[in-house]
Amino acid sequence: MRLTSLDVFRGITIAGMILVNMMGVADDVYPLLAHADWNGCTPTDLVFPFFLFIVGVAMTFSLSKYTEANKPTSAVYWRILRRAAILFALGLLLNGFWNKGVWTFDLSSIRMMGVLQRISLTYLFASLAVLNLPRKGQWILAAVLLIGYWLTMMYVPVPDYGAGILTRTGNFAAYIDRQIIPQAHLYAGDGFKKLGDPEGLFSTIPAIVSVLAGYFTGQWIRSQPVQSRTSVGLGLFGIGCLIIGWVWGWTFPINKKLWTSSYVVFTSGWALLLLAACYQLIEVRLIRRWSKPFEIMGLNAIALFVASVLLIKILVKTHIGNGENAPSTYNWIYQNLFASWAGALNGSLLFALVTVLLWFAVGFLMYRQRWFIKI
Questions:
Q1: Nearest to 41 by CA among 345, 270, 277
Q2: Mean pLDDT of the residues in the chain
Q3: What are phi and psi of 39, to 5 degrees?
Q4: Is the pLDDT of residue 284 over 60?
Q5: Bridge partners of 158?
Q6: How far apart, in whole angstroms, are the C-alpha atoms of residue 142 and residue 140?
Q7: Can you tell me the distance from the alpha carbon of 267 to that of 340, in angstroms, rounded to the nearest whole number?
Q8: For residue 135, how far is the Cα from the chain centroid?
């Protein structure tokens, strides 16, 4: 069984990832298209957890044949480990590509963690949980990870800071990352100053639940008829998660960079609502014409994401003209082709939208040639 609405959801998410990554380079961005500075959640902060949620839903179909009576073989575990290793290596490739120049990789200072690395680790540990725990055990694990992370972050003291200090440098997750990851390999931007990492190791623990939430959703969908009541059920679950996450945020703020437990539940709620809308339109009502571009992008999601990040880094690292004041290729295109007539905010948005269209065109050519890159 292939869930077309899941491919469309994945395509929407990848388009969103490309859009917000491109917007992240610009100096002038509409607030809704920028990440929350710290606590809070903008539409941009939904994109990454959506992808982890999708990974979990997809796992429902890829691992469905393995049960207590049909245990996975060592070959299955090797495939999972291989996929996780490739994703992690691709993440290091992207980090190194940015590190010291377009073609130079400096392993002594490469950032260890990142988006693909988090996808890799959450996929690996969620898969192991799914294959080795009964359904009740999976739910208990999800609850333990979320509640345990909350209690640890709020009540375990950090040397020189104390307990419950949820600042960039004073939070427990940043402290653990500093103990495990050498400083040269930590994230250096966005105010972190190599004192933490927005995709760090410790905050990856609750991110595993973002994948498990998708897996639980996929399990439920597989047991339901293709009817509107299934879409309604997804929507109601989504609203429930939004309420729980929002209320939890009163004591443990919704925060993407810390991947707080409230953030996991809150963003899973939005993911359920968007999946419900896609499911209702595509699977139940068979209204599919609008969704084809997103389905095409969703079929080569990782390939398009990696290529788009490489392109952004090339645009930023290369320059038009000579001299210290020569603008980057990105700034030259932005200023001359977009901002010059559309203004700063609209110009950055249009540049990002054109980039999304470019990668849709690439995805369309791959689709026409039946090139589907799987990891």
A1: 270
A2: 91
A3: -75, 155
A4: yes
A5: 162
A6: 5
A7: 37
A8: 25
Angstrom distances, CA of residue 359 to CA of 16, 204, 210, 327, 333: 12, 29, 27, 24, 17
Give CA–CA dist 88/69, Å, rounded: 32
| Sign of the dihedral defined by the CA atoms of residues 218, 114, 42, 354, in that order | negative
Distance CA 152, CA 164 (A): 9
Contact 206, 260 (CB under 8 A): yes
Q: How far is CA 142 from CA 54, 100, 217, 264, in A?
A: 17, 39, 13, 11
* Confidence class for position 71, pLDDT limits 50, 70, 90: confident
Tokens of 341: 């007539």
Token couple for 327? 């603008």
Contact 13, 47 (CB under 8 A): yes
What is the pTM (predicted TM-score) of this model? 0.94
Helix (H, G, I), strand (E, B), or coil: what is residue 11? Answer: helix
Closest CA to 173 of 184, 187, 158, 186: 158
Dump pLDDT digits (tens) for 159-176: 989 999 999 889 999 999
Handedness of CA 327, 194, 198, 98 (dihedral sign): positive
What distance in Å separates the CA atoms of residue 35 and residue 46, rounded to the nearest whole number?
Answer: 9
Pinpoint the alpha helices (H) of the chain: 4-23, 47-62, 74-99, 115-132, 135-155, 172-180, 204-222, 228-248, 261-278, 292-299, 301-317, 329-333, 340-342, 344-368
CA–CA distance from 9 to each of 48, 75, 221, 296 (Å)? 13, 30, 15, 11
Whose structure tokens read 């990142």?
114
Q: Cβ of 167: how many Cβ atoms within 10 Å?
A: 14
Of residues 211, 58, 6, 232, the one with CA closest to residue 126: 211
Map residue 181 onto helix, strand or coil: coil
